[in-house]
Amino acid sequence: MKLTNYYTSILTLLLMAEMVMGTCESDRKLDCSLLGDLLEMAMKQKSPDKVCQCPRRTKIPAFSAMLTKSQTPQTNNAIKFDKAVTNIGNGYNPTTGIFTAPIGGIYHFTYTVMSKPGKYLVVFLALNNTKQQTTWMIGSQYETGTTSIILSLKKGDQIAVKSADGSYTVNSDSNMYSSFSGFLISQ
Q1: Cα Rg for the chain, rounded, in angstroms?
Q2: Helix, strand, or coil here: 13?
Q3: Each residue of 64-74: pLDDT tens digit?
């Protein structure tokens, strides 16, 4: 009996699942979740009119926001990345610039900020108003700085990118936006 590429792919996934399940006893729940999603996606590809309905994936908190106009926030005040592009779980508030964890877990955050030409810019990422990481820059042109961090959060913890010195402007223009994003990696 001749198998099509589709069925060969399914069998390959099942064999890989068996290998992974046999070697990763410590986190079987995670293995099952990931492999289940892979199998579901493979099964949906047989019917191109159907979209993968991985229900657990729609509940993962994630956001991405941009700064649409330059801001000069006061010292220790949050930068309000005012245009939420993605906001799954509604954890990010663009009017305050604060992300509130809707569920506890391990999160990844990234922000990019741009300075005015020849001006200093010092910002930091805060967890519940406590400085976690600082980005500092100055240059003769527009300078950008990008920072990434992984943090363990409890439900209700708050994350914001804040100004370390209220006399400087976080820049944004039509060619480059300052941005802030984050998502849950693991519960």
Answers
A1: 21
A2: helix
A3: 999 888 888 88
